[in-house]
Amino acid sequence: MRRAALPQKDGIRRLRCAAWDGFSAVAIARDPGEHLIIHDELALAVPLIDMAGSSVAIDGARLACANGHIGTHCVVPAGASLLGRWPNATDYLIVKFAADFSERFGEDGIGPPLRNLAPSSGVDDAVHRLSLLLRDELENGGARGRLYREALAIALAAAITRDPRETPALAPSIARRMRPALDFMHDNLERDIGIAALAGCVRLSPRQFTRQFRAALGVAPHQYLLDQRIARAKQLLSHGDQPMAVIAERCGFGTLSHFSRTFRARTGATPARFRAEA
Q: In the prediction, which pLDDT does 4 show?
């Protein structure tokens, strides 16, 4: 995880930010007042608390749904100026999509390319829930891993470009098509696997892969990968006496504390207790 450079500005009370592969996230709290912001990349702004009475204009045009209520969001194209007026203190998340991410996202040709998005606002519970998950990942220092973050970014990009009439059909053989990606996961559980690598295994774009994987297996790629890591951890804990730190590393967990916390959340027991009772 790279810490994104963002200059300190008047009215910002706290700031958490991180840049990953092709996108970044910034959680900001601002004092009441009027603020002019120009984003250098396509940005998605999502209120994290209810900010009723707020208003947002992009390039001078006021957005109808950008009123600060929970569940609303606004899309700000690169280079556009955003003028926000907040009667109270604000708390919101900004997700920026870099040009290379936008290009990769548009490769499958489904929906408008990100670079072509116009200024807009809307009400979407999925966008809000995904934003909260990304905010949590930001606060946790990226502990859940690259695949999880990329899945969230792709899901957010899909949500803001989604055509509600879109109902893609899946071929009956789609589950079999996922086999190379599943094998790649199983053979590389210790690695920080990204969506692009998995999509490349089955010759799909990242967006197509994420959607078809969930349709075929009923879970998102990062959830499936986590299940496999926990399964391997159980196997290693049950057979042999490798140190916990070694097992954590072999199963792809960044730290021993992350391994212990995740293992307990998934199984109801700490790794040490599981080993003792195995």
A: 43
Count of Cβ atoms closer than 10 Å to residue 184 Cβ: 16
User: Which of 104, 85, 223, 207 minimizes the C-alpha distance to 156?
Assistant: 207
Q: Is residue 91 part of a domain?
A: yes
- Note the pLDDT tens digit of each residue in 219-270: 789 888 988 898 889 989 988 889 999 999 999 998 999 999 999 988 888 9
pLDDT of 68 above 80:
no
pLDDT tens-place string over residues 186-195: 899 999 999 9
Are 17 and 140 found together in one domain?
Answer: yes
Q: What CATH number corresponds to the domain at position 112?
A: 2.60.120.10
Torsional class of 203: left (φ above 0), alpha (ψ -120 to 50), beta (otherwise): left
CA dihedral sign of residues 101, 104, 105, 109: positive
Q: Running DSSP on this structure, what letter comes out for residue 2?
A: B
Are the C-beta atoms of 146 and 20 separated by less than 8 Å? yes
Residue with tokens 């040709």: 109
Q: List the structure tokens of 276.
A: 């003792």
Q: Is the pTM of this model over 0.70?
A: no
Band the pLDDT of 108: cuts 50, 70, 90.
low
Tell me the three state secondary structure of residue 25. strand
Other beta carbons within 10 angstroms of residue 240's beta carbon come to: 10
- Given its phi and psi angles, is residue 159 left (phi above 0), alpha (psi -120 to 50 degrees) or beta? alpha
Give the CB-side neighbour count of residue 118, counting CA atoms within 13 A. 3
> Looking at the domain assignment, is residue 153 inside a domain?
no
CB 63 within 8 Å of CB 120: yes
Residues 100 and 177 in one domain: no
